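Q: Convert this sequence to C-alpha cells.
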Amino acid sequence: MKASDLFVKCLENEGVQYIFGVPGEENEDLLFSLEDSTIDFIPTRHEQGAAFIANVWGRLTGKAGVCLSTLGPGATNLITGIADANLDKSPVVAITGQGGLARLHHESHQYVDIVNMFKPITKWNTAIIDPNAITEVVRKAFKVAEQEKPGATHIELSEDVSKQIVKDRLQPILPKRVRRPGPDYKAIDGTIELLKKAKRPLIIAGNGAIRKLASKHLTKLTRIYNIPVVSTFMGKGAVSDRMNQSLLSIGLGFKDYVMEAIEKADLILTVGYDIAEYAPESWNPKADNKIVHIDFLPAEVYTHYNPDIEIVGDISGTLWELNCKLVNENLHFDADWYKPIRARILEDIASYDLRETDTPTIPGTLNILREILNDDGLIISDVGSHKMWIARNFPTCCPNGVIISNGLASMGISLPGAIAASLIDPQRQVVAIMGDGGFLMNSQELETAKRLKVGFTIIIFNDNDYGLISWKQRMSRNRSVSTQISNPDFIIYAESFGIKSFRSKNVSDLQKHLKTAINSKELYIIEIPIDTGVNDQLIKKLKNYWEE
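A:
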C-alpha cells in the first residue's frame, strides 16, 4: 500500500467528511488517494479560507475540521486560521505538503521550516519522516486536537514520503473514548461552603461552558438557585438569554451596565473561562473578587485572577456533582439584587429599535434580526464594531447560537465559517455578519459557497471604514486616522457570482428582505449602509450613567 493511501484510510477512520484546501504539486499523491475515498476534498480560493472553514467546523461539531495546503506560501497562508483555531479552542488538523526530504537540509525552492513555524500556534505538530509512523501520527493529531481544551494540530507530509510503500499489515488505530477526570470532592465541598456564605453569587460562563452537557447542567444550577449568569463573547448561549437569570455578555473595552452586577457580587464562579478571550483585570481590577474556577485545566497564574478554589476536571461533571450535592443544602440568596440590572440591559437593547425614517444602525438591525431568526438559528460574526454590538445586544438562546472569534479575533472568519455551518446542517438558519473590511478579506470564498450550493445570508455593514478601530481611536483621542477605505459596488460584485443581493433603502424594505433571505436558505447578500453615530452615543450614555 502506498503511504498516501494509508494516510487517507487513517483520515476515514477518524470520521473525516471534508478536507478544505488548495491543491499543490507536493500533495499530488494525497489528492489522488482522496479521489477514491469517502472524503470530499473541497478546493477553496485561499488557504486562509480553508482554515477558517475547518475552524468553525470544529467549533460547531467538536470533531476536528481538516484543512490542507501545499508547502511554502500555501502553508504560510494557513497560519492565521490555525492560530485563530488554537486560541479560540477549536479542534482543527492542518495538513501541509513539503518538498522531498533529500533537499530540506539546504536552501531550496519554496522551502520554509513549517513545523517550527507552526510550533507556537498549535497544540502539537510534526513532520512524518517514516511512513510506517502514519497511523500513530494521524491518531495523535486528532486525539490532541479534540481533547480538552481543544485546539489545532499540524502534520507535514512530504512528497517523497507520500509515494513510499508501507507494510500492508499497518491499519489505522481505532479511536477510543477517553473519560475526563471528575472533580475533587474537597474542591466541591469548599465551593459549597463559599456558596452557603454568599448572598449575591454570580456566574461568568466562558467558552468551555457551551459544551452540550455543560450548558444543560449550568442551566439547571442557574434556574434552581436563581444565580445570575454573565457570558463572555464566546460563552454566549451557554444559558439562554431568555432566562430571567441571564445578564447577557461582558467583554467590551469599556464599562457597561453588566459590570454593576460583577461589582455587587460577593462570589464569582467562572465556568470554562478563557483568559485569552477577556483579560481578568477588565472585570476584577482590584484583584479582590472571591472566585471559584471551574474548568478542564488549572487557572493561569495571573495577578487579577487568583481563584480561592479551583475545580479542575470535566466541566459538565463538576456542575452535575454540584447540583447533586446542593440538593441537601439549604441555600438562600438575595433573589432580586440583579433584576434591575437585567431590566436596564433589556431596556437599552430595545431603545435601538428602528423607525421607518431612520438610517439603519447595527444594533437596530440586530433587533430586526432577533425577531426573524429562530431560537436555534446561528449568527457567525466577523471582527469589527458589529462584533461588539452582537456580543452586547443580540440575545442568544442556545449554545453555539452565536459564533464569535475572540481569542485571536481574526477578521475574515464569518463568510468561510458560514460555509462550514451550512454544510453541517443545511436546514439551519445561518447568518454571516461582517463589515466591509472583513468581507473583502475572504470574499473570494463566495465562489466556494456557490459551487457547493450552500445557502446562508450574508449581511455587510458598510461604513467605508475600519469602523472598530475608528471607534476606539475616537474613545482614546476624540478623532480617527488612517481607517477610511473605499469599496466596490457590493451588489454588482454579488451578481457577478450569481448571488441574489439587496442594498437597504429603508427600514421596511430591510425587514422584508432579511426575512426573505433568511427563510429562503439560499445564498443571499444584503448590504446595509449604516449610521455609526450610535457607537459614540453609547460611550457618552454609559459615561453619564457611571458618573451619576
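The chain has a mean pLDDT of 93.
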